[in-house]
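To: structure desk
From: M.T.
Subject: fold request, one chain
Message: Could you run this one when you get a chance? Sequence is below, nothing fancy, just the single chain.
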Amino acid sequence: MDLKRLRQIIDRASSKRILVIGDLMLDEFVWGKVGRISPEAPVPVVHVTNETFFPGGAANVARNLREFVDKVSVIGFIGKDRSGQQLRQLLAERKIDISDTIEDDKFSTIVKTRIIARHQQVVRVDREAIAKPTTTQIGKVAAAVKKKLPDIDAIIFEDYGKGFLTRELVGQIAREARVAKKIVTADPNPNNLIDWSGMTAVKPNRAEAFLAAGVPDRDSEVAPKKDVDLVRAGKELLRKWGIQYLLVTLGERGVMFFEKGKVPHHIPTKARDVFDVSGAGDTAIAIFTLTLACNATPLEAAQIANHASAVVVGKLGTATVTRDELISSLENDFD
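Reply: Done. Structure tokens follow.
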């Protein structure tokens, strides 16, 4: 794939309409300096210099898409608390449609707080409670998605295992989407046993792939091309879920791309510096799905997603990749 081809794909992006469904979160970053160790315990004392907030979880997938797409919608739980109001405001500022998101006064908005000093994460504090939608709420979401289907190009299920995605909800929406011949992808969570059968593509990380496939990971240090266990797990998931494509993210080793009936393809990482892996998976599933919707070949979509992830891990905090950064990443690759 050359730069001309990349531009052809990306130039189609702005007109695409993508729907993200999953666990919504608020990402909080507390930035500071460490000058001493606490006299109360052997822990660093962080002097706070700044705080920043970003949409997290499924909301971060939508945020990544908005760098390229004019119309993005997201559906999940948001509480009627202060954090929920903040998350709503952040999404509204980015012109992300949340009209079908469920606001529940019994739900506490999920917040992940990362305390960072000297470019290193000192600790992460999670405020969350697992909550599943009621039968009524599932029906409401399914009806809203069915109404949107004629006007969208793809659906992304983003599962952080916080309860919003259930077998019933995913099953209802996936069936309707398949009938409508829409692209449907999923970023799974091993703690949530959802049947991803019939998806266009699923994007687990290495550990998630092995757990879902029920295959033992005997040697994670072997080169991906020679990793017989990884190949076995990938092929098993293609069979188990009956999906067309499987994209397994391998961290600093890039991604392994599986396509039904074809030899697996390892794509090495393009990252030059790794500062923060927060949200890298969100970027990968967002760009992979978007480029599929832009008529990229599946392998091209995997390559572009790999480049996009390489850009965001070189940034601190929950980050996104822009069009110019993505093109620059490929230019550097050619150089």
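Reply (cont.): Residues 73 and 97 are 4 Å apart (CA to CA). Let me know if you need anything else for the meeting.
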